[in-house]
Amino acid sequence: MKASDPPVVVEQTYNASKEKVWNAITDRDEMIQWYFPMIPEFKAKVGFETVFTVENEGCVFPHRWKVLEAEPCIKISYTWKYDNYEGDGYVTFEIFDDDEKTRLQLTCTITEDFDDSIPEFKRESCVGGWEYFIKQSLKEYLEK
Question: Where are the beta strands (DSSP E) in 23-58?
């Protein structure tokens, strides 16, 4: 993933209220059910930071997030970087009314190049991961 790449944008409409979607993306007890089960703590508060480790096929990725924006039921943004790896970016979740449903738009923006010789840092991996989280995992969680 490179800073020169366009942002990754994934949208999904859910049969759920804005409040339910907001809680799913900001409440740690809900986030661990569809997102990352190893998140130790999360608060939708500007300046809040958390660190947790994800392992994939023998590779260790220490995630470091810092909340940049938090407007309840509207938007949350946080940095997304990995300790011990070059690269930086941020993700933004925006919530919109869509008739009696709720639309979520996820935007992943890269601000410093990641080493795309690492498979997990390739653009197609980023796109596939966000499509899974937003279009499948979160959808199943919200609509069960």
Answer: 49-56
pLDDT tens across 80-94, in order? 999 989 999 999 999
Structural domains of the chain ordered from first start: 8-142 (3.30.530.20)
| Of 114, 142, 138, the residue nearest 10 (C-alpha) | 138
3-state secondary structure of 77: strand
SS3 state of residue 78: strand
SS3 content of the chain, % helix, strand, coil (to 5): 25, 40, 35
Looking at residue 72, its amino acid is P
CA-CA distances (angstroms) from residue 137 to 56, 131, 134? 18, 9, 6
Whether pTM > 0.90 for this model: the answer is yes
Are 127 and 25 within 8 A, CB to CB?
Answer: no
